[in-house]
Design brief:
6-stranded mixed sheet, 24 strands, Immunoglobulin-like, alpha+beta, binds zinc ion, 398 residues
Length: 398
Amino acid sequence: NLLVNPDRLVLDLFGVGGEALPAVAVDDVIVEKIRSSPFDEQTMRLVFDLNASTGYRISPWPEGGLEVEFNYLLADLGLEIADGLAGLWLEISAEPEFRLVYLEDPDRLVIDLQNTTLIGSARNIPVEHDRIARLRASQHLPSTTRIVLDLLKPVAPLALQAEDSRFMLPLFAGSAAEAEAFLAELEPAEEQKAVEPVKKAAAGTGELAGLVIAVDPGHGGSDPGAIGHDGTFEKDIALAVSKFLGELLQKAGAQVVYTREKDVYVSIFERPELAIAAQADIYVSVHTNSHIKRGTARGTETLYRAGDQISQLLARSVQDELVKAITLIDRRIWPRDDLAVFNGSTIPAILVEVGFLDHPEEEILLKAEGFQRAAAEGIFHGVVRFFDEIKEAGGLGQ
Ligand SMILES: [Zn+2]
């Protein structure tokens, strides 16, 4: 039990007898002292005298004993603005894990610091900035400090940086997509280093033997793609489904070329180049969807290169088999002439939007490994069916 006045954590250990142990003076920012005393014959009581009321986690050790972990402490925070660029600084006892969620009506960016306690009262600070109106912070849950930026125009957080005794979260003046384009232009050399060299698996003897398939997990690195209600990143779902898909394709004898195999940024112009370099027969991009009115749309759709019948046939097969496998709403196949991953090559190309990550129910599905595997199987069956149909029609005609 966490008690107040004074702040202390009381742990009753049932089935533990014996004498009180000497008190331990800790004198840390959180814990002042640990005391123990027999509460009754069966119960040993531990009292942690605290300097601040704070969340905690108790984990039993398998070999006996237990561990009590207290939250990180967020002593202070604020916005630093220089030349119109804003950065959120955090004076915190360790690098926090955080989740980002954009909310609308009114527009705001929510940053949840996990396992963190805010020292002092809630903050509500007006900001003089053309994009940010206000900075708020409060203890949302015992385990979570919530920071909210009330936005006038979009900002996109970049990578967290350690600075002397604090952490800085730079805020790009623009949307996540604009931040991506900016980063791509700023550091083309550095970003390219992150790209894995093209890999080809040994050719097998299965039903896809002799074929090269480019698998393109959407987004990655500094570009999270869509962000779910619960903070799930599209880039992570896309990579997971792509890897399951790649395994199935390889088992069927295909050579698989990934445009990325890790959480790295690869530009949308470079992705089709990788497929061309590997002489891929088809190009399958894996994404999850989002709607401009968050959470209002659901279902599966497959985009394909406009005016390209082979791509359309591939989209038809994959959409049918994917919907059969995961049973989300069958939205449509959709010709597109405006996507760089299609326009960068003439390889038959599709982009699968498995489901809507901004729909809370579909986010739960998309996060589940079983669902990711089912989606990969659906796409795989669509690819196999496509090549069967092509074979019947007399080949790809290349
Ligand atoms: Zn996407």
